[in-house]
Amino acid sequence: MFIIAQIIGLVALIALVLSFQKNDKETLLKYQIISSLAYAIQYLLLNAMSGCFINIVCAIRNILFSYYHEKTPFIYLIATLIALTTLSLFSYTTPISLLPGIACIIFSISLYQKNLRITRIIEVISCILYIIYNIKVKALTGLICILIELTSTLTAIYRYDLKKR
What we know:
Layout: H1 2-20, H2 25-45, H3 49-67, H4 74-90, H5 99-112, H6 116-137, H7 140-162
């Protein structure tokens, strides 16, 4: 299962890296739906249930947020935050098991607003939290993926936010 989990993590990585190289929210979210589902499967196979549950909620969040082109109803953000908090507490084993939930909560809030620059900056913070989690649960491919994701996000920040100035 370990090798299969790492392969699935690679699929998640590819989708996520592609998502941050898109400069429109709808396309970004479509790639992130694929990525979240693949990460959920990877964490399930590694018996890292916090990561699995959180990524399932993130996939649902991304589906809801991508459905509404102009403005996602606020109730969907609240429902997402409640689900993330509940599942984080439900799957709690150590303080580190809370990190995926915290990362996804702040990222969900960043997706709700329209400024992709803020979304990318929050993604950097989320990556740092997931780096710690992946080290703890021994998601080696996940760790590599997050490091590449962090690099991709920093590249997007440079391309879209800093270079244009």
